[in-house]
């Protein structure tokens, strides 16, 4: 039996007498109260409670150190979840997302999409939505993973680390989505980022350029950030290669995507709210904000249905607003 809500919640409160930020004596600290309930988390509250307490203590006592020390600490925790993140088939969130997509008019211009990483956390949720929207999807998988691609997509075999194994299978696609990357990224995997993420992206970008693909969609990461330097460096290098090859491309830059198996950072939302309220950290908090799986999928769909000329970068605020953007674009196309 679940414990009573009163025993699993921790209320943290800033002091009732406003302090001032050193160096800015006229700027009062906000007076805020928020509650985090362990009953709503997939991990125990003990994993995140110290972070929240440090956040409040630092805001109240040493705001000048808030930006570097606290930001580094909780962003590292965000991007290094230790719980299992294995793919969850047919979740309630997937069904809810498909129902929401059904309410939108179909795209007036169906795309032929080639996707790498289609069996992963994002790809397995994206493909059913693309199919529902009327797009044709062809997914690259390893020969041993053919049965893992969502139903309805065309399956082709190849090695994401070697474009020669799949380049001849990309056409007649006009849109190339690249989602391949090392799972559970952490600072300890710097060598893997270069061996997998960099190589796979380089192969995909060069293949798309050689084939004259009309629209390339790349999943990058929000930056700059005070942590995960090796991970960010690889993604930034791939973005530079996209520019060098002069691809018409959309680059999406999320930080952490909340979803099945990725829910515990919801406990950090109050910290983000505090940070977005403070002018000296507001921009970073918005750039490195959390997005939901639904928002991320909608952003990818919106990218597919809104091809660009040149390079378009989609940050966290735009990812969060993607559903509204998609609805407006569909209305415009069908008008």
Describe this structure in words.
- The chain has 335 residues and is α/β, with parallel strands linked by helices.
- The protein has one domain: Rossmann fold.
- Helices cover 41% and strands 16% of the residues.
- It has twelve helices and 13 strands.
- The protein has helices at 49-61, 63-79, 92-102, 123-132, 167-170, 190-211, 229-244, 269-277, 282-287, 293-304, 316-320, 322-334; strands spanning 9-13, 20-21, 24-28, 33-37, 112-116, 136-141, 154-157, 175-178, 215-219, 249-252, 256-258, 290-292, 311-314.
- Helix 1 runs antiparallel to helix 2.
Principal-axis shape equals globular
Characterize the largest beta sheet: strand count, sense, and whether it forms a barrel: 7 strands, parallel
Gyration radius from CA atoms, angstroms: 21 Å
Distance between the termini: 54 Å
Helix content: 40-55%
SS-based class: alpha/beta
Poorly predicted parts: 1-90
CATH class: Alpha Beta
* Discrete helix count: 12
Write down the CATH topology: Rossmann fold
What's the domain count?
1
**Beta-strand content estimate:** 15-25%
CATH architecture: 3-Layer(aba) Sandwich
What order do the strands of the largest sheet run in, or round the barrel if closed? 7-6-5-8-9-10-13
The count of β-strands is 13
Q: In CATH, what is the homologous superfamily? A: NAD(P)-binding Rossmann-like Domain
Mean pLDDT: 76
Topology as a string of helices (H) and strands (E) = EEEEHHHEHEEHEHEHEEHHEHEHH
């Amino acid at each position: 039996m679940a414990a009573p809500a009163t025993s699993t919640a921790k209320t943290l409160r800033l002091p009732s007498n406003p302090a001032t930020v050193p160096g800015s004596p006229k700027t009062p600290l906000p007076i805020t109260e928020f509650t985090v309930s362990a009953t709503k988390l997939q991990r125990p509250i003990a994993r995140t409670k110290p972070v929240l307490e440090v956040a409040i203590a630092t805001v109240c006592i040493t705001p000048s150190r808030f930006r570097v020390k606290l930001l580094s600490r909780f962003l590292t925790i965000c991007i290094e979840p230790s719980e299992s993140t294995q793919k969850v088939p047919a979740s309630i969130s997937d069904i809810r997302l498909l129902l929401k997509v059904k309410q939108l008019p179909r795209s007036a211009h169906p795309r032929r999409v080639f996707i790498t990483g289609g069996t992963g956390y994002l790809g397995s949720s994206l493909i059913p939505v693309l199919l529902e929207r009327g797009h044709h999807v062809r997914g690259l998988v390893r020969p041993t993973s053919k049965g893992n691609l969502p139903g309805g997509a065309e399956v082709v075999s190849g090695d994401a680390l070697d474009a020669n194994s799949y380049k001849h299978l990309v056409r007649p696609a006009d849109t190339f989505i690249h989602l391949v990357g090392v799972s559970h990224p952490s600072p300890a995997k710097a060598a893997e980022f270069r061996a997998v993420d960099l190589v796979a992206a380089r192969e995909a970008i060069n293949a798309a350029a050689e084939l004259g693909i009309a629209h390339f969609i790349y999943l990058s990461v929000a930056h700059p950030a005070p942590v995960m330097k090796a991970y960010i460096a690889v993604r930034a290098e791939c973005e530079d290669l996209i520019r060098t090859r002069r691809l018409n491309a959309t680059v999406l830059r999320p930080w952490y995507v909340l979803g099945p198996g990725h829910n515990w950072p919801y406990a950090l939302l109050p910290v983000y709210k505090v940070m977005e309220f403070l002018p000296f950290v507001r921009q970073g908090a918005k750039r490195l904000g959390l997005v939901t799986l639904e928002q991320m999928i909608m952003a990818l769909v919106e990218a597919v249905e809104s091809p660009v000329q040149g390079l378009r970068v989609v940050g966290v605020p735009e990812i969060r607003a993607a559903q509204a953007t998609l609805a407006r674009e569909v209305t415009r196309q069908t008008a």
